[in-house]
């Protein structure tokens, strides 16, 4: 059975280790680097002693990189300058194998802001998919928070498990559950339930049961019809502060004297619905 108190326990050693990894500025044997090209193209690569990374712009010897700081320029065999950046959680989500649609990164940002997501949160997610959102959630709730993530397809769950581990998320931060979230949520006293499944309304009564009073609900929906149905169900179930939002990001091509929006943009990714659990009692306040 889930025990929130136990989930808060974290050894001083682990806390030191997590902090150490997070602030490491030096590339080591086993570090992940994001190789950045001037064109904006990036490669996610794990540095290994003796390894050589081959690109269309020449090769890079990893032995030469170890011991230098993130942010260093790396000159390839053809003279091309790459930059070795420290990957963000979202870089793992974008570069690792995926099955199906992942949550669009700007929407992840909105989920964090609208739900106050922070270290120590207990989060229930359904469905896991490729684990892109799981990586993002886990990176914010660690070191002492938890993400319980529900998925119905074992093959998809296996991909997500590999991706989450590859992103360096501590094993104890994410609990993978092979279960249908519309049939029930086992956890209690949860801070956030976030759903990215086709029929979230079927999980709303379970989300209400699982959430702590005032806890947050968030939902990712591709169509406006789903938004209407979801909002209606949330209002009936005792949620308040129900909001539906959409995020459009416009990128700019910046050139002296010719700065303008990029011609192509993502016109639609998903709608987001947020709500908070209320109705757990009435206080006569007059
Ligand atoms: C769009 S994907 C989720 C993508 C994920 N948010 C990401 O960023 O990588 C939806 C996933 O939900 C799973 N799913 C659908 N219905 C479900 C349910 N009732 N319970 C648990 N998982 C479910 C599907 O198998 C699919 O893998």
Walk me through this protein's architecture.
The protein is α/β, with parallel strands linked by helices. The chain has 2 domains: 54 residues, Vcp-like ATPase, Chain A, domain 2; 188 residues, Rossmann fold, CATH 3.40.50.150. Helices cover 29% and strands 27% of the residues. The protein contains 9 helices and 15 strands. Strands 9-8-7-10-11-15-12 form a 7-stranded mixed beta sheet, sandwiched between helices. A 4-stranded antiparallel beta sheet has the order 2-1-6-5, covered by helices on one side. Helix 4 runs antiparallel to helix 6. The chain is globular and about 75 Å long. The chain starts with a helix and ends in a 9-residue tail after the last strand. About 6% of the residues have low confidence. It binds S-adenosylmethionine. The site of S-adenosylmethionine has 21 residues, from helix 6 and strand 8.
């Amino acid at each position: 059975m889930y025990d929130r108190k136990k989930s808060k326990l974290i050894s001083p050693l682990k806390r030191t280790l997590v902090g150490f990894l997070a602030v490491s500025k030096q590339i080591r044997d086993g570090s992940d680097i994001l190789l950045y090209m001037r064109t904006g193209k990036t490669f996610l690569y794990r540095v290994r002693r003796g390894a050589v990374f081959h690109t269309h712009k020449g090769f890079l010897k990893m032995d030469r990189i170890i011991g230098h700081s993130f942010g260093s320029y790396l000159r390839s065999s053809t003279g091309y300058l790459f930059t070795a950046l420290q990957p963000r959680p979202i870089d793992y989500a974008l570069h690792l194998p995926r099955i199906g649609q992942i949550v669009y990164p700007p929407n992840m940002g909105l989920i964090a802001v609208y739900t106050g997501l922070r270290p120590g949160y207990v989060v229930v997610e359904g469905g896991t998919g490729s684990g892109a959102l799981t990586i993002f959630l886990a990176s914010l709730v660690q070191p002492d928070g938890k993400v319980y993530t529900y998925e119905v397809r074992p093959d998809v769950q296996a991909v997500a498990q590999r991706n989450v581990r590859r992103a360096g998320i501590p094993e104890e931060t994410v609990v993978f559950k092979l279960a249908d979230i519309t049939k029930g949520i086992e956890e209690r006293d949860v801070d956030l339930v976030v759903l990215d499944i086709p029929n979230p309304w079927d999980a709303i009564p379970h989300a209400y049961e699982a959430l702590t009073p005032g806890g947050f609900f968030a939902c990712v929906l591709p169509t406006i019809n789903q938004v209407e149905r979801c909002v209606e169900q949330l209002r009936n179930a005792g949620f308040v502060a129900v909001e539906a939002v959409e995020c459009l990001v416009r990128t700019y091509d910046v050139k002296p004297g010719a700065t303008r929006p990029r011609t192509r943009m993502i016109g639609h990714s998903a709608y987001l619905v947020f709500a908070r659990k209320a109705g757990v009692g009435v206080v006569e306040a007059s």
